[in-house]
Write a structure and sequence with these properties.
The protein is mainly β and 336 residues long. The chain has one domain: 7 Propeller (Methylamine Dehydrogenase, Chain H), CATH 2.130.10.10. 2% of the residues lie in helices and 40% in strands. A four-stranded antiparallel sheet has the order 1-28-27-26, with no helix packed on it. A hairpin with a 5-residue loop joins strand 10 and strand 11.
């Protein structure tokens, strides 16, 4: 493991080649030699998290439990973003950047209402979801566009409170925006009978879903139950894997046939069996489940390199770079 020293805790991390960049920190970066280079920009607002587009061109910096955000093209401000004030202090800002099937990079967010998803062209700001809407009462959060740009994932919550996951057909939504107001493409049977803690895309067809310890009354298998990690296939319309786990999974990051689990410390989990392939107890991350609730426990700040080998994890006074097993070893030199 490589440890990079920082002058202040990183609020976001993204790989730019072999450099690490803190977009929230104004573009502060660390090279392969471990030297920190100062930020060229000061955003002048207490943003604390970010998302980056597939090409790396666009990014959004936002206040995770606030209402303000900025869309950036590199270091250039494209426009300011907002979300509804309603319950904004108790759930994560709903925003994603992705690429549609035709290659257009889009912004997905909830600019007016907490329960109304909108899709905009990132470059022009043109809204692509114009039309009559009939939203249901759901708090969208932790949005993610699938690889290939066919579907949109929302891992939000209902007013029980209870964490849920929904998946929407993007092509259908561009023709009829009300598609985003329905229940999406995930059928109720064999659905999920426990609270969703997190979810992520594994590829363009499969998503991984982690559940917590609470379930709905009257639950029966073969649905995804309490304390499980499941893999749902859109094409098969069913669970292709369901595994019981005896620990909280927390935030998920996809990595081939494994996922990085972030709760307390990073773990690498086999999605087919639920087995822990490797873990790093000395690297601390927040104990955070779900997209809503406690305000004093933030989402972990991590970045998986496109090579699938290097995982950067923000620490209070450093950045830990973990070499994940199962692929060719990292060639990143030790700093200094």
């Amino acid at each position: 493991m490589i440890v990079l020293k920082v002058t202040a805790e990183a609020q976001s991390l993204v790989w730019d080649g072999d450099d690490l960049v803190d977009v929230v920190g104004g573009g502060r970066r660390w090279g392969p030699d471990g030297v920190e280079h100062p930020a060229p920009v000061n955003h002048g607002f207490p943003f604390d998290r970010s998302v980056v587009s597939p090409s790396g061109r666009y990014s959004v910096v936002y206040a995770e439990r606030g209402t303000k955000a900025l869309l950036l093209d590199g270091d250039r401000l494209v426009r300011e973003l907002n979300r509804s004030y309603y319950q904004a202090d108790v759930f994560d800002y709903p925003v994603a950047l992705g690429a549609l099937q035709d290659g257009r990079e889009v912004l997905v967010h909830c600019p007016e209402e907490y329960n109304v998803l909108e899709i905009e062209d990132a470059e022009s700001g043109e809204r692509l979801t114009l039309g009559e809407r009939h939203p249901k009462d759901v708090f969208h959060s932790r949005l993610a566009v699938s690889p290939g740009g066919t579907h949109l994932l929302s891992a939000g919550w209902l007013w029980h409170p209870h964490g849920v996951v929904e998946v929407f057909d993007l092509a259908g939504a561009l023709t009829d925006p009300a598609v985003l107001d329905g229940h999406g493409v995930l059928p109720e049977e064999p659905g999920i009978v426990a609270e969703v803690a997190s979810a992520c895309w594994l590829d363009g067809d499969r998503l991984a879903v982690a559940t917590g310890g609470e379930s709905l009354d009257g639950a029966e298998t073969p649905a995804l139950g309490q304390g499980q990690l499941g893999v749902w296939s859109l094409s098969a319309q069913g669970w292709v894997h369901r595994s019981k786990v005896d620990f909280s999974i927390g935030t998920l990051i996809a990595r081939g046939e494994t996922v990085v689990s972030l709760y307390g410390h990073p773990r690498l989990i086999d999605v087919t069996t639920g087995a822990v392939v490797a873990e790093w107890p000395t690297v601390e991350v927040p104990r955070r489940d779900g997209s809503y609730g406690v305000t004093h426990i933030p989402t972990p700040v991590v970045a998986l390199h496109p090579d699938g080998i290097r995982l950067a994890v923000a620490q209070p006074d450093s950045i830990a770079i973990i070499t994940l097993p199962g692929r060719e070893e990292s060639r990143l030199p030790l700093p200094g």
